[in-house]
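Forwarding these from the shared drive since the link keeps breaking.
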Amino acid sequence: MKLLLAPMDAITHQAFRNLVGRFGGCDEYFNEMINASSLLSFGAWEKYYLLDGPEPEKLVWQLTDKNGSKMAEAAAFLAQKNGIGIDLNMGCSAPQIAKTGAGIAWMTKPVEETADMVRKVKSVIENAAKDGSKAKRLSVKLRLGDESYTEEKLHDFCGMLISEGVQMITLHARTQKQKHSRPSNWHAVENLALRFPEIPVILNGDVKDRASFEAAKNTAPHAQGIMIATAAVQKPWIFAQLSKLSDSENSPSSQTEQNKTINCKELALQFIDDVEKYQPKEFWKTRLQRFFAYYCLNFSFGHYFQTSMLNAKDNDDARVRIHEYFEKCKNDSTAIIF
């Protein structure tokens, strides 16, 4: 079963993907969503969204916008870049996104409008494949729909997507207004996979450790992959853990390797170094805040550490706070990941 890194705004930039890559990476990295109109403006910051490391051949570009023509134009540009494919964001339910007509709004617009956008994107992707090269994959990440969701409506919508050329669907199985405190509906993922066996259906939501990984696989055995979001921010090594778990299941007679430990302080400091290398200075503060909001929760005094890092004045102050925390809490300096 494939393991995929979810697209997360202000998180899945190259500095964070590098952290995941240090532990062996994952099968596919989705970048933080790119606004098509902003990309086409070719402003000073857009080049940072186009960085494709650490494994360009595993990168998926995710697009968002309210305008179908802009989505197609941006897809034509991205189709010339490295990577596996292009993903259309139809799942973001953040009010500042949905209210503009982007994200999950594509699931609630007149179906002809959404179909026309997908058709245009598919056409430019196919046209970008030259000299016999394989066209990039077109995928969609979506939710169950709005609060009028029914399984029939979801299947009809996905059937339209597939008829227009979508080749993979990732389902975050919550409705537009359902928060993360409500369990993700993994049964809906399984039913979608059974309804459309001709394409990969990917499960997204609530997989955060070995137990939930096993539970998700048991509930949706026909899903062809699991996409992990914030659990990967807290534990960038989670893909290594789950890959090892899968390997041990496939080869139960193999001897168990020695435990692998990591230096938690050095990982945090390396992330700051990479943010400075791969992000514009204007982004440094928010990128650090988004990462440490989750990463700090690994530790004995996680909420104290989290608050300290969120209040850091700048990167140098953040480094000082990291050294101070691990000096006080030496037992947190290393962690066993398997």
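-- next protein --
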Amino acid sequence: MATTTAPSSPSEPGDADELTAERLRPVLGAVTVARDTALSGGLYNSVRLLELTDGRRLILKTAPLASAPALAHEQGLLGTEALFHRLAAGAGVQAPTVLHHQPSGRGAPAEWLLLSYLDGATWDAARDWLTPADRTVLRRRLGECLARVATVTGPAYGYPQSAAGLSTPDWPSAFTGMLRAVLADAGRFGVTLPAPAAEFAGLPVRFGHRLAEVRRPALVHFDAWEGNIVLARDVDGSWSLAGLIDGERAFFGDPLAELVGLDPLGAAEDDADLMAGYRSVTPGLTVDTGARVRLALYRVYLALVMRVEAAPRAYGGDFASWLDTWSADRLTEQLAVLDTLRAS
């Protein structure tokens, strides 16, 4: 999953500066970069903060080379991010402005994306300064924001980039494809699972009737955790939601999946403030048995993605150990939840 980015260190002049200049020139014309800073924290794309002499600040994101190991759905992710930001902005949600997107191909060995910079601090970076009252207001605003995102309807279900081959006319088949793709990735990268792959692969068959309850391909960010939410401090000292970033993992599907992506370690549907904000835009949202089944399915999917991506990313150290234990426990837990719901 994507993570927040934080300042690292300015780059030394060299090939990277020339490459940046080559990319900016056709898009912005004759501009000068006063400061080029690598931002740390991202686990997939490289991200740089470009400060121009005219005062503008931009974000330049570059994907790994197309030949780099990746999960099946990780095709054209920056194209997905560009699409998400444009659609979200059209729905009234604050997001970076897309200045240019360049797919990989002839003359561009790696995909890249140029965005405006959102002023502020990510929620996780500002967490220690937030009061309980601040958090209540912000969670309500976040619920409203994500409900607006979900008002966008896609042309099909699944991941929008055709190269991934994971887009279909209905949600049961799209989710089945998404789930089985990450299971195939587990086999390809030699990732062990806490239960047989066939048990996970059979979940959409067992619960297909619940997946079929989704009737519209809603836009889902699926990574709106606190590291991908930008906050701004107002003149009176209060905090406001400045926007969503890192929409590269977006897909079209069940809007309930957003609750899983924004709170991968918990259960956002039990957050009264968040849900009140969401229902202020979409009053009809209910968390009934069918919804809880689907939430458990999406938690299985997310835990599988996080577990399997550790292999091509070559995670190490304490984080890798934590992720291995957490994902195994989460998968086992959610399988048990699904067994209980099936029996109810």
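The CA atoms of residues 231 and 242 lie 5 Å apart. The first helix runs from residue 15 to 28.

- D.
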